[in-house]
Design a protein that fits this description.
The chain is mainly alpha-helical. The protein is built from 14 helices and 2 strands, in the order ααααααβααααβαααα. The protein has a two-stranded antiparallel ribbon. The termini are far apart. InterPro entries: ABC_transp_permease (IPR001851), LivM-like (IPR043428).
């Protein structure tokens, strides 16, 4: 199946499947589930950039998603700013908040960075919960307006909202592929493979780590703004560490350091949990072992395992071609020696 999804044909097939999904969905609830999955897929793509491609595990990612969501909610509800202007400002504010936090946290490495960002995420959650004059505290922000019409395009039905979120997902995937395939993306991967080696190659570590961090939180900010316009109600729970761990699970199941992996993980897991809802709290008795099985036997994720397998096959094929060439060279050398003796 993974080979079938390879290349432009596979991406085109996924694009068509997304366009046709509303016609196959049984009801508006299915559209809601899929739209929510798309929003978290956008945020997961951002987390994968800093974690899967740069090697920095950011546990404050849900907090930055909440910053984008609350920026849009506060501007539209309290200050009556137009939706799309607030949407753009949500990305700007998220990056402005992320830059100083990234500048401080990225001086740490490995587990220290992850622990620090977990603390940062907790602080962001507490700020949202306690700063009632700005964030409305535990009451949350209600009455967030739906996305306003763009020319003849209005977004007042579940189907239209679905296509709006889907457009941003497609654009986010397209941009992410351009980033990771560029020189910048290769620089991020060099940092992931080793700070010392990347620095020896002339890579400015702090500048590139900060660039990856900023792009990552930008994805989170826009995903949060979309979430606010989609759900139209916000509470502090959005900044909770549970959402960061959910996105981490999506990456692990799909495959770290790939674009398709986190996308598939973010779409598969929510539907699996939906189908297990009939079991109520007992659904984790099924979902838990499945996750453990994947972590143990498919540690690189679905897409990551397929990529590694394809690389091994290519390597074996190359070695297979070299072996006959070496045998031919040996026979030629032996023939020359025999000729010389004669």
């Amino acid at each position: 199946m993974m080979k079938f999804l390879e290349g432009k044909f596979g991406w085109g097939l996924l694009l068509v499947a997304g366009l046709l999904f509303p016609f196959m969905a049984g009801n508006d609830y299915h559209l809601t589930v899929m739209s929510t999955a798309y929003i978290f897929a956008i945020a997961t793509l951002g987390l994968n950039l800093i974690t899967g491609y740069t090697g920095q595990f950011n546990l404050a990612h849900a907090g930055f998603m909440a910053v984008g969501a609350y920026t849009l909610g506060i501007l539209t509800v309290d200050y009556e700013v137009s939706f799309w202007l607030a949407f753009l400002l949500a990305g700007v504010v998220t990056v402005l908040v992320g830059l100083p936090l990234g500048w401080v946290s990225l001086r740490l490495r490995g587990h220290y960075f992850s622990i620090f960002t977990l603390c940062v995420g907790t602080i962001m959650f507490l700020v949202i919960e306690k700063w009632e004059s700005l964030t409305h505290g535990t009451v949350g922000i209600m009455g967030i307006p739906a996305p306003t019409a763009i020319g003849p395009l209005s977004f007042d039905t579940p189907v239209s909202i679905y296509y709006l979120v889907y457009f941003f997902l497609v654009f986010g995937v397209w941009m992410m592929r351009r980033i990771v395939d560029s020189l910048m993306g290769r620089t991020f991967m060099a940092i992931r493979n080793g700070d010392e080696l990347a620095e020896a190659l002339g890579v400015n570590l702090m500048r590139n780590k900060l660039m990856a961090f900023s792009l990552s939180v930008l994805y989170a900010g826009f995903a949060g703004a979309l979430y606010a316009g989609f759900v139209r109600f916000l509470g502090p729970d959005l900044a909770g560490a549970s959402h960061a761990f959910d996105m981490t699970m999506y990456m692990i199941i799909g495959g770290l350091g790939t674009v398709l992996g986190p996308l598939l993980g973010a779409l598969m897991v929510p539907w699996l949990t939906q189908y297990l809802q009939a079991l109520q709290e007992f659904r984790f008795l099924i979902f838990g072992p499945v996750l453990i099985f994947l972590v143990i036997f498919v540690p690189n994720g679905i897409v990551g395992t397929w990529v590694a397998r394809r690389a091994r096959q290519a390597s074996d094929a190359a070695l297979g071609k070299q072996a006959p060439a070496k045998d031919t060279a040996k026979k030629s050398d032996a023939a020359q020696k025999e000729s010389a003796r004669a």
